[in-house]
Specification:
Elements: H1 10-21, E1 33-36, H2 40-46, E2 58-61, E3 65-70, E4 75-81
Length: 95
């Protein structure tokens, strides 16, 4: 899945996570994935989640949430639940 075009440096990613944590509780035991949006038009064409997004915003993904954050205004633009699909096993086998 292509969500954004650039992965920020580890320092920048940690800064974005710290800033988002001032607005919403994120799990401490898991380091969220962070991506900077640099081609918002392409993303808008694929998913309405990005309707309010702009280039330079960040996507922060935890095991349960996807968060769209705008650092220039220090606001969360959108939050949606994340559902990870389990792979489907076909055929039968015995343990």
């Amino acid at each position: 899945m292509h969500v954004a075009d650039r992965t920020p440096s580890s320092t920048k990613a940690k800064e974005m996570i710290a800033r988002v944590r001032t607005h919403i509780r994120l799990p401490e035991e898991f380091e969220p994935t962070v991506a900077e949006i640099i081609d918002v038009e392409m993303l808008r064409g694929k998913n309405d989640f990005y309707a309010q997004a702009a280039n330079g915003d960040y996507l922060i993904i935890t095991p349960s949430l996807a968060i769209l954050y705008r650092p220039s205004e220090d606001i969360i633009l959108n939050v949606v639940p994340v559902t990870l699909e389990q792979p489907t096993v076909t055929g039968t086998s015995s343990p």
